[in-house]
Amino acid sequence: MIPTSLDWCRTQDARDPLAPSKDRFDLPEGVIYMDGNSLGVLPKGVGDRIGSVIREEWGRDLIKSWNTADWINLPTRVGAKIAPLVGAKPHEVVMADSTSINIFKVAAAACRMNPGRTRIISEPGNFPTDLYMLQGLADFLGPDYELVTVDRDKITDAIDDKTAAVLLTHVHYVSADMFDMAAVTKAAHAQGALMIWDLSHSTGAVPVALNEAEADFAVGCGYKYLNGGPGAPAFLFVAERHQDKAQQPLTGWFGHRNPFDFVDDYAPAGGIKRMLVGTTGVLAASALDCALDVFSGVDMTLVRQKSQALTDLFIALAHERLARFGVGLATSQNPARRGSHVSLTFEHGYAVMQALIDRGVIGDFRAPNFMRFGFTPLYLGFEDTFRAVEILEEILETETWREERFNQVSAVT
Ligand SMILES: Cc1ncc(COP(=O)(O)O)c(C=O)c1O
Fold first, then answer.
1. Separation CA 347–CA 341 (nearest Å)
2. C-beta of 129 in contact with ligand 1 (< 6 A)
3. Does the CB atom of residue 98 touch ligand 1 within 6 A?
4. What number is the average pLDDT over the span 56-77?
C-alpha cells in the first residue's frame, strides 16, 4: 500500500533531493502545473537569453552573429546537449525542424536504406502526426508502399521480410505505456527492419538508452519535458553506423556539404548535418539551448525515481478519492511500464479539466474522455500531487464542472 496522507507527502517533499530544482523555473505563483508533458514551464534565464540574442546578437552584431555567436552550429550544439538524455553520442543528435518533419525525413531515409521492402509498421492510436506523416510518405513513395498499423502486443510478430521500418512512440501520448525499447528494436532487426523511436514523451522524463538498445533512428519534441518553449525546434538521432548511408529527401542547403559554395548540385554533408534542411530559427533554437541547461548536473535516475513515486501516489489517491465518481485509470499500475504522465477517464473529462484549470491545477484533455496529468519531477512535488487530487475531488463532489463556462470547447484542449 502506498501512503497517501498529506503528512507523508510533506515528509517526501522535505527529503526530496530534486526539490531545489524548482527554483530553476519561473512557475507562476499558486499554479500546480501538470502539463509539462505538453508544454514545459519557462526555465529562468531563457527570457534574458532571448533578450540578449535579440539586442546584442541580432540588433547590434547583425549578420556577423552567424559566425561570432556561432548561430551556424546551433543545430549540432543543441543536439549534443540533448544526446546524454537519450543515450546517444554527441554527434548522433541534431536539433532541427518539427517532430513531424523529422519523422518524414528519418522514415524516408530508412525506406531508402531497405530497398525492396515496402511496409512501414506502427500502431493504431499512435500520436496522429506519426501516422499522418507515414501515410503521406507511403503515398509519396508509390502504390507499393503501405503503412500497416498493428496492436502493440502483436507488433513484434507482425514485422516481416517486407518491413522496411518500424516507427513507435516509446511512451504513449495518452496511456503513457512504455515499450521495451531494446526488445522491440531487437525484434525489428531480427527481420532486417530498421527501428525508429518517437521520444516526444520520454526525453527529459525517463532515462532513454538509444545506443544500448541499438536503435537506428529517433525523433522527439523540444517543447515538452525539454522546456524549449511553444513550438520549440525538435531533434532527431541517427546511429553513427548509418550516418553515411542515411539520406533524407528534403535536401535543403543546410544539409549540403558546403552550403556557402553556392553550387547548383546537392552533395550531402558528412555525418548528422545532412539531416538538416533550411535556415535555423535562431530565436527558438536559442531558447531551447538555454532551457536545456536546467538538466546540467541532474541525475536522470533520481528524476525517474521521483516520477514513479509521484505517479504511484497520484494513482493511489485517484483510486481512493475519485473512483467513486466513476473516474477510471487509463495508465498502467506498474511503474516500470509507464512514462511520466497518467491519464484518467471520465465521461465529462473536458469540463472537469476546465474546472480544474480554473482552480489553478493545469492538466489537459485528450478526446474522447481522457484527463491527462504530467509529472515533471524537476518542478512538481508530492504535496502538489495531493492538492491536485483534493481539488479534483471537490470539483466532482460539488459538480461545478457542470457550469456553462466549463463546457465551451476551445480550439486547443
Ligand atoms: C508522440 C508525439 N509525436 C509528435 C508530436 C508533435 O509533433 P510536432 O511538434 O511536429 O507538432 C507530439 C505532440 O504532442 C507527440 O506527442
1. 20
2. yes
3. yes
4. 98
